[in-house]
Amino acid sequence: MKQAFPVLLALTAMPALAEETRSLDAHEHGVGALNIAVDGSKVAMEFTAPGADIVGFEYKATSAEDRAAIDAAVATLAKPLDLFVLPAAAECSVTQASAMLESEDDHDHEEHGHDDHVEANEGHDNHDHEEHAEAHEDHDEHDHEEHASDEASHTEFHAEYMLTCANPDAINEMTFAYFDTFENARELEVQIVTASGAQAFEVERDDPTLDLRNLF
Question: Which of 17, 85, 130, 133 has the most CB within a 10 Å radius?
Answer without folding.
Answer: 17
